[in-house]
Amino acid sequence: MKPFPIAFQPYTIHKQLAEDYAGSLEKAARIGYRGVELGRPPEGMTVQEQKALLKRLGLQVINTWGGFNSLDFDIEETANYLDEVNGKFVTVSMLFDGSMEDVLRKAREMNRIGEAFRRLDKQFLYHNHDWEFKKIDGEYILDILLRETDPEFVKLEIDTYWVRRGGEDPAAYLSKLHNRCPLLHIKDMEPGEEQFYAEVGEGILDFAAIAEVAEAIGTEWLVVEQDLSRRDPFDSLAISYRNLGRLGLVQQ
Questions:
Q1: pLDDT grade, residue 252 (50/70/90)?
Q2: In sequence order, which residues have a C-beta less than 8 Å from that of residue 147 and are 6 or more positions away?
Q3: Is residue 215 exposed (0-12), middle (13-18) or buried (19+ Cβ within 10 Å)?
Q4: What is the DSSP letter of 60?
Q5: Rounded to whole angstroms, how far apart are CA atoms 219 and 216?
Q6: CA-angle at 159, arms to 156 and 165, nearest 5°
Q7: Cα 156 to Cα 207: distance, rounded to the nearest angstrom
Q8: 29: how many CB neighbours lie within 10 A of its CB?
Q9: E strands, the chain, where?
């Protein structure tokens, strides 16, 4: 099975980052992570200082967040930041009102934005939650988005936890996304009705099967994220990374 470069989504440690930005990134890098999904630095730090910090830590910015439930953001400014930090991807998530009209309108807007990013040599991604697995006229919202967006302009950052919470098997759903899921959020789920977040390899998801499909469809990075944890979130990041190593999925 192919090993992957492993990144982390800093929402996992967002409270710690707010208190100690550099120190928190350093703690995550010490675990072994090679990439991070990051935006512009906090007040008081320049992008050049951020770049120097990341270089010292051996962390590559692979993706930045375009926004949540809004497609109204500065495309050129976002692309300029990615140029500064040698990043490639920008990701959004959206809410939907349950109507086909709403989904189709947002798909058209994503095509426009994705084409603009492509002209700037960047790739626009859509990150799912579970609500995209609600159906309109018998079809998942996420499947409608896939059908109505250009695969060159709009790709996905699938989240394994949210696919499972939406009622689908993550490996099976991934299998139909050839060359359309360059980044994969890997997140596990505890057994039981609560469906609480778990460290990768500590829950019910089959990450060996997920990784096998990810390799087949051309996924470039695995990205660890855990929205909430029952322990110190740095411990959660470490457990997930260690378990990925045990599966042979960590690129050295």
A1: confident
A2: none
A3: middle
A4: E
A5: 8
A6: 130
A7: 18
A8: 18
A9: 6-8, 35-37, 60-68, 89-93, 123-127, 135-136, 139-140, 154-159, 183-186, 188-189, 197-198, 221-224
Average pLDDT estimate for 203-215: 98
CATH class as words, domain 36-181+188-194+202-218: alpha beta
- For residue 192, count CB atoms less than 10 angstroms from its CB and return exposed for 0-12, middle for 13-18, buried for 19 or more: exposed
Backbone φ and ψ of 60, nearest 5°: -105, 130
Contact 224, 7 (CB under 8 A): yes
Per-residue model confidence as pLDDT tens digits over 217-229: 999 999 999 999 9
- Provide the residue type at 213 as one letter: V
Report the alpha-carbon distance of residue 31 to residue 28 in Å, rounded: 5
Domain boundaries, the chain: 36-181+188-194+202-218
234 close to 10: Cβ distance less than 8 angstroms: no
CB count within 10 Å of CB 216 equals: 12
Q: Based on C-alpha coordinates, what's the Rg of the chain?
A: 18
Of 158, 100, 102, residue with least CA distance to 125: 158
Residue 50 token pair: 């951020």
Based on the number of CB atoms within 10 Å of its own CB, is 19 exposed (0-12), middle (13-18) or buried (19 or more)?
A: exposed
